[in-house]
Amino acid sequence: MASPRGGGRGKKVRIALRRNRSAPARDKHWTRRIRQQGVDSIESRQDERITPKGDLSRMRTVIVDETARPTDARLRDGRVVAMRGLIADVDDGERTWPCTIRRMLRTRRIGERQAVTVGDRVQFSVVADADGVQREGVVETVGPRRGVLTRTSGKRLHTIAANVDMAVVVVAADQPPPKPHLIDRYIVAAHHGEITPLICMNKVDLDPSHAFASLLAVYAELGYATLCCSAITGEGIDELRTALASRSSVLAGQSGVGKSSLLNALQPGLQLAIGTIIEELGKGRHTTTTAQLIKLDFGGYVVDTPGIRSLDLSGVPRGEFEKHFVEFVDRLAGCKFPDCTHTHETGCAIKTAVRSGAIRPERYESYVRMFTDPGI
Fold first, then answer.
1. Pair type for strands 134-142 and 96-101
2. Could you give the percent of the chain with pLDDT greater than 70?
3. Distance of CA 70 to the CA centre of its chain
4. Backbone angles phi, psi at 147, to 5 degrees
């Protein structure tokens, strides 16, 4: 982070610091003072300010250059492998350090659920405890991100994983049954974060009739890579291992689809905890409670994420949804209105393609549902 003086590169950012505990700029309790001490006790101030200035102000302007890297030799490079509340586990290649996050860094990213996330490349300083033993660190800076999987949590952005190349969207052939609309949401999130999506159908051993094949065919026709796997029988595990090798990926999907089971099958010895299905609801239990970055023996890294039942895409501008549906893109120029939302307008090329069968109705309905309410 460059100094605001000296013309450093970067952009100006207003930082809200802690509320200060100084007395307010405007004197109060005038009525009480008049009653107790009389009118003469009230003297007009010539220098009164309605807004604070100087030491009373809790906003600072700093110049941030996200591409600059501190040259302090005491800082170490590392990668965040897990988040545990406000603690980031950072791997520097030799060991994993539990690290707190520098307050200024958290303040700068106040709009995000977490200032640091799994997969981030960071620089951190090591601090010693009262006995002089170096046991933990402090994350000082976060490097530029590429390839992010995000969602909205409350009103803040939640970055699930950063610096990944591929998002493996895991669904189950049964227990729980697949949700095509949730698959579409993950695909949009992957496109928005500049990640390549791959659709992985797990638990195919539970569907001997291969009814799931028609669902995968929808995405294969659109050009997406698809895989059929079973963590129980081993079907498709070698193909998934090949897809994950020598790259960084994130496994995402609803609870109970078997993400951790797939990782255990891919790399024996991981012994990740796996859950069961709530039979009366047909939904998975939350077993993985925090995302973690796993180094694969056959090359590459993978982020195992907690299962979710909905993916809030409120952070994606509504006008961008159309470009994340690949079958829409080449037809957008044919719409009568340049700002066509493809929901109610006349002369819409997308709706015409749906009527002609060129675009599948279920995909169009998924778009409309997403555009109408990105949060569900």
1. parallel
2. 78
3. 26
4. 60, 80
Looking at domain 76-142, its CATH superfamily turns out to be Nucleic acid-binding proteins (2.40.50.140)
**Superfamily for domain range 149-304:** P-loop containing nucleotide triphosphate hydrolases (3.40.50.300)
Report the amino acid identity of residue 94: E
Site of tokens 């090359």: 299
* Beta-strand pair 283-284/196-202: unpaired
- 291: closest CA among 305, 308, 278? 305
- Please give the share of the chain, as a percent, with pLDDT higher than 90: 61
Contact yes or no for 159/80 (Cβ under 8 A): no
The amino acid present at 277, given as its one-letter code, is I
Matching residue, tokens 């390549």: 196
Q: What is the C-alpha to C-alpha distance for residues 264 and 50, in angstroms, rounded to an integer?
A: 62
Give residue-wise pLDDT tens across range 302-334. Answer: 999 988 878 999 999 999 999 999 999 999 999
Of 232-236, 277-281, 305-309, the least confident: 277-281
In the chain, residues under CATH classification 2.40.50.140 are 76-142
Identify which of 35-39, 73-77, 132-136 has the greatest average pLDDT.
Answer: 73-77
CATH code, residues 318-372: 1.10.40.50
Contact criterion met (CB below 8 Å) for 55 and 17 = no
Q: CA torsion, points 310, 316, 321, 327, in degrees to nearest 10?
A: -70
Tally of CB atoms within 10 A around 37: 10
Q: Indicate the DSSP class of residue 144.
A: P
CA pair distance 227, 184, nearest whole angstrom: 16
Instruction: Quote the pTM value.
Output: 0.79
